[in-house]
Write a structure and sequence with these properties.
By secondary structure, the protein is mainly α. It contains 29 helices and no strands.
Length: about 575
């Protein structure tokens, strides 16, 4: 479904004027284009529907050919065809198209027209078709629907009320109506309808709908009872096991939750919902990053899961290095930057990264490409544009950060080193203004993190052990200064996405952490310690050391640091879809 036919955005009144002019001239095709555009601007405006009716009358075939469906059809044309189908007595087909438009643009009031909310529509289409429409709406809508978009779904809820009035004992209709009511915040009504549905026709799905409604109403014990009855109806539906486990965990009953998820895995060790839930709950139990790494491996090896899950992102969100950067190490510690390490954005070209590019004399450092010289020049405007688009203080999880950084893959090594030596000013955006207002060093930290992630995409055809990307990142990590931890984070990210490099990266991280302790920097290394805790395959001794340095106990969240960063990062956390529910 396409957004539009051209780049114009005329008001609905102007589109209608053009449509009427074309209609008077007998140019029905152009009139149809303008009516479709007017529908997008004002989908419930009576004048738009009056003009559509005139167009249908003039066409001779009800106007359907003027709004034919193609592989890419303008959403306004889809909605126009829906209204014409309803006028032709094919309201069920029209409803299907309106739901498709709702899925495309959930905030638009596509269905807020009299024929959808008329009581007689429910009588004409029957309970099964009404239930199917409601299921389509639920599948297209987030759970819950944001408050700003709920009014657009009100006509479908009215359709549900009308259909239940006509068919008060239809279990499937009551259940789907409950699911819609729950999504739009009508929780009491959702419980009422779901309870009636179970009483009218006991079924697995009826109990699931009731369980979800009760859970939304805060009636957790009753919700779990309903979900257990759903398992009794169908012991092989492992998604319900995952729902029960998730509900138990959300209410502090983690051991019971793990018991349920282990039951599911015993039936099918590769069932995606159970695997995602199991790793999330195990991480909640002991805080060991290996559970998240195993989940990332599962996601990589099973790209065709039944639906998208948000468990990995949920576990990483707000956690140092797993889902967000940490502030730079305080000035005066072992890792404080040398004066020339990060010159001002408008400073002259200098030997800003000597440990990465070698001594000032020729030739360049051994093993680095000949094109890398001792002088690092400022990045070009195009390079600055790219980093400003990508640099962000938060990411869903390390593999997602790696994937996002592919936007820097085509940059030369000199471009990337130039960004590290000459970080640009923050962008003139909400993010840039907040970062520069809170602490300008955080913006530089963002540039460093994403530039180092970009280095991971440099010459990926080279085997890891002798690759340019590894050699440069290791030199940057060993150089000290503010760029050391971003470079080390890039290496850790490489270990997340490539199991073959995990032993190497774990050894590098262990050596860096041990050296920091040996240098007497333990009081100033919480960021490095958290970076170690995010590293795959780290040995138990180093994990224990990192936990001590980070000031956390095994299995416990680092709440002080999370609180410290929450205020800054909350506005920028990406919204991630969770697993769909019935």
């Amino acid at each position: 479904m396409a957004e539009g036919t051209d780049g114009r955005a005329l008001p609905a009144t102007e589109e209608l004027a053009l449509a009427r002019r074309a209609l008077d001239a007998g140019d029905l095709a152009h009139a149809a284009n303008h009516v479709a555009s007017a529908l997008v601007r004002a989908p419930t405006l009576p004048e738009v529907h009056e003009t559509l009716a005139r167009l249908a009358a003039a066409s001779g075939d009800g106007g359907l050919e003027l709004f034919a469906l193609h592989h890419h059809t303008f959403v306004g044309a889809v909605v126009a065809r829906a209204h014409l189908l309803a006028a032709a007595g094919r309201a069920a087909e029209g409803l299907d198209l309106l739901v498709a438009a709702t899925a495309h643009a959930p905030g638009a009031d596509w269905a807020g027209v009299p024929w959808v909310t008329a009581p007689e529509l429910a009588e004409r289409i029957g309970p099964e078709r009404a239930a199917r429409v409601l299921m389509q709406v639920c599948a297209a809508a987030p759970d819950p629907v944001p408050a700003v978009d709920r009014q657009a779904l009100a006509p479908y809820l009215t359709l549900a009320r009308n259909a239940i009035t006509v068919h008060p004992e239809h279990g499937l209709l009551l259940g789907t109506a409950s699911a819609l009511a729950r999504r739009v915040g009508e929780v009491t009504l959702a419980v009422h309808w779901a309870d009636r549905g179970v009483r009218a026709a006991p079924s697995k799905m009826g109990e699931v709908w009731l369980g979800y409604a009760l859970r939304s109403a805060g009636r957790t014990r009753e919700a779990l009872t309903a979900l257990r009855r759903a398992v009794d109806h169908d012991p092989d539906d492992l998604a319900v096991y995952a729902d029960i486990a998730g509900t138990l965990a959300d209410h502090g009953r983690l051991e019971e939750a793990l018991t349920w998820i282990e039951r599911a895995l015993a039936r099918n060790p590769s069932f995606d919902c159970a695997v995602h839930t199991a790793h999330r709950l195990r991480f909640q139990r002991d805080g060991e990053v290996r559970h998240l790494v195993e989940l990332a491996d599962f996601i990589r090896d099973h790209p065709d899961d039944s639906h998208e899950h948000g468990d990995l992102a949920e576990c990483c969100r707000g956690r140092p290095w797993l889902g967000q950067l940490t502030p730079p190490t305080p000035v005066g510690s072992t890792f404080s930057p040398p004066a020339a390490a990060v010159p001002p954005a408008d400073g002259p070209a200098t030997d800003a990264l000597p440990s990465a590019v070698g001594p000032t004399a020729s030739p360049p450092a051994a093993g680095l490409p000949p094109s890398v010289g001792p002088v690092v020049v400022p990045p070009s405007a195009e390079v600055v544009r790219r980093i400003r688009q990508l640099a962000h203080p938060a990411w869903p999880h390390p593999p997602a950060a790696y994937d996002t950084a592919v936007g820097l893959a085509t940059l030369d090594l000199a471009d990337l080193l130039g960004l590290l030596a000459h970080p640009p000013e923050p962008p003139q955006s909400a993010l840039g203004r907040v970062l520069s207002g809170q602490d300008p060093a955080l913006w530089i930290r963002c540039v460093q993190v994403w530039t180092c992630l970009g280095l991971l995409h440099h010459r990926t055809d080279e085997p890891w052990a002798g690759s340019t990307r590894r050699r440069v990142l290791v030199k940057l990590a060993d150089a000290g200064g503010e760029v050391a931890e971003p470079a080390l984070f890039a290496l850790v990210t490489a270990a997340w996405v490539d199991p073959s490099v995990r032993t190497d990266v774990a050894q590098l991280v262990t050596a860096r952490l041990t050296a920091a302790v040996g240098d007497g920097a333990a009081p100033a290394t919480p960021s490095l310690a958290h970076l170690a805790l995010a590293t795959p395959d780290l040995d138990r001794h180093t994990v224990a050391l990192a936990q001590t340095l980070a000031g956390i106990r095994p299995g416990r969240r680092d709440k002080p640091l999370r609180r410290l960063l929450r205020g800054l990062l909350r506005p920028f956390r990406p919204r991630l879809p969770g697993p769909p529910s019935p």
